[in-house]
Amino acid sequence: MKILSKICDCIFTILKYFVAALLIFMTLLTFVEVIRRYFFSQTFLWSEVLVRYMIVWCTFLGGAAAFRKGQLVSFDLVVQKFGVKKKLIFEIIVNILILAFAFWLTQMGAETFFKPSIVNQKSIELGGISIRWIYLGIPIGFLCMTLFTVEKVIGNIISLKKMNADQKEEVITS
Fold first, then answer.
1. How far apart are CA 33 and CA 51, in angstroms?
2. Beta partners for residue 123, in sequence order
């Protein structure tokens, strides 16, 4: 579990800085384009398309990072009513469903990346690069989410086992 947590920490750090860099670059590029358009009546043809594609990457990579930190929408109102043990069981069930869904989306994203219709499609505005590189953000984001979900499920199962062991120990000492 410690190795998995260290790997997830490393991936999370990379995601966090990569998304931050993308956001900074998008903000600067958009600012420059506003200045160029309104003061000089000029524009880079590729800037709007590049920002749009970078938003795709920020969405999926940032979503995976937010998931790891527990900053996505959740069932807080429902879970608050549960006891600690029921809450862990509920989290395990929800995370197993998320794991299945994230794994499926990783697989679908990877299949899309290799489809000939995507491989052969080019972005004219960005110098003819393949659109597949834009789509690559989807399977990478969901692969990270899958890994983070595995970490959460294992952590919850370990916590549940510790809780059960502690309860058994209390019964024996009583």
1. 11
2. 129
Domain extents in the chain: 2-173
pLDDT at 4 over 90: yes
* 3-state SS, residue 16: helix
Task: Specify the 3-state DSSP secondary structure of 129.
Answer: strand
Q: Residue 119: helix, strand or coil by DSSP?
A: helix
Residue in this structure with the two tokens 């969901």, named with its chain if needed: 142
Cβ atoms of 91 and 152 within 8 Å: the answer is yes
Report how far apart, in Å, the C-alpha atoms of 137 and of each of 109, 133, 156, 173 are: 9, 7, 28, 54
| Per-residue model confidence as pLDDT tens digits over 27-66 | 999 999 999 999 998 888 889 999 999 999 999 999 999 9
Over the stretch 81-95, which tens digit does the pLDDT of each residue have? Answer: 788 888 888 889 989
